[in-house]
Amino acid sequence: MRLTELIGQPKAVNLLQRALAGGRLAHAYLLAGPDGVGKATAARAVAAALLCREEIGSAPCGACPGCLQFASGNHPDFLHIRPDGAVIKIDQVRELKKALAFPPLEARLRVTLLEEVHTMRREAANSLLKLLEEPPPDNLLLLTTDEAEPLLPTIFSRCQVIPFSPLSLEVSAAILLKMHPGLDQEGARTLAGLAGGSPGRTRDLDHAALLQLHRDILTGLLAGHAGEADRVVTALGLAARVAKNEGLETLLDLLRLFFKDTMIAATCSRGQSHDRGPHHLVQILSRARERWNLQELSDSIQTIDFAQQALARNCNRQMVCDVLFLRLLAETPQQQATRTG
Fold first, then answer.
1. Is 50 exceeded by the pLDDT of residue 271?
2. Are residue 140 and residue 248 in the same domain, yes or no?
3. Judgement on whether residues 151 and 261 belong to the same structural domain of the protein
């Protein structure tokens, strides 16, 4: 991976390339921005360039022993620390400090990547701060964080901060198409909307099954129903499928995004485009606007919010989904008026 291959982060790439080309590196860099926008990828690209024995600037040659070692994950002068479970622990920082006390084994510079430093507890953060205040020679620290608030302000002041931004819908969709072979344009745009400019958030999803279930949910919500009994059967059937799906939280995010997009489309004046893209098709948004008015769309979003809050409190998944879909599929006043009129 080279910095020039990083998509959608021109400012961060430019700052890092200038640092590498100028040969005046800070002792520590903090790559800060949303989850899944390329911070760890950029850090690895910097490490690859620095551990390349050809020393050709901001890009590794890819063929020297240093590059081959790094690519295989076996370079002795590249250290990589991730959270152990949910946090980076004090013992991990202590072990790092011991390792950095010795000079690099092969390269002129040892590179350490610490991911998600915002997960450190106070004790670990203070230990890392001492390392940043008294950096050992011939070492470079690359830190990444998704959340600035939990970090000690002094950690910021001891690092050169490289800001990363959320990606546009189009760039996110293009990245997702590369990440998930077999994903179509429609699915990529749907996941991109869910990712909120951070396509890396979807890396662990079974996207094909998730998107198919999402389509089935929309079909069930928008289908004509013969009566109350038919609505209840459809609601409970969807609830049973959703409750047992490992991507339940993501499905609810997708469903909320659908209702939000429908509201935005409904409030656009005629002839005005809805710039968030189809979820999943323009025809579905059109049918949704016919089924729900703005108040009902707002109520549906609130219903999904209540369901997400209940799940966060560890309420029974099946019961939460039963109530959710029974409410979403309840006959609206507009439908009642049409039926009785």
1. no
2. no
3. no
